[in-house]
Design a protein that fits this description.
Shape: globular
Radius of gyration: 13 Å
Number of strands: 0
Number of domains: 1
Length: 86
């Protein structure tokens, strides 16, 4: 199986298509944060808008898995807070 491109993998995680035991699995909230970080865009959880934007980008903008790992190392765990939390 070919290696997933970073953004494609994050999109699949956002949609919940990557099983937790797969090495490219990321929780939905982390996939969303990584998509924002790597693209500078914010389409919330709108999978179709993310997909359209990524498909419109030039192939030369492909990101490396090392960039992904560096982000996670720098940012640490990303926690999702409820709107009700203080």
């Amino acid at each position: 199986m070919p290696r997933l491109k970073l953004l494609d993998g994050l999109l699949k995680n956002l949609k919940g298509e990557i099983p937790p035991n797969h090495r490219t699995y990321r929780p939905v909230h982390r996939a969303y944060e990584l998509l924002k970080f790597h693209t500078g865009q914010d389409f919330g959880d709108d999978y179709e808008k993310w997909e359209q934007w990524i498909q419109a980008k030039d192939e030369s903008t492909e990101l490396r898995e090392e960039d992904f790992a560096r982000f996670e190392k720098l940012m640490g765990p990303i926690e999702v807070m409820d709107d009700d939390s203080e």
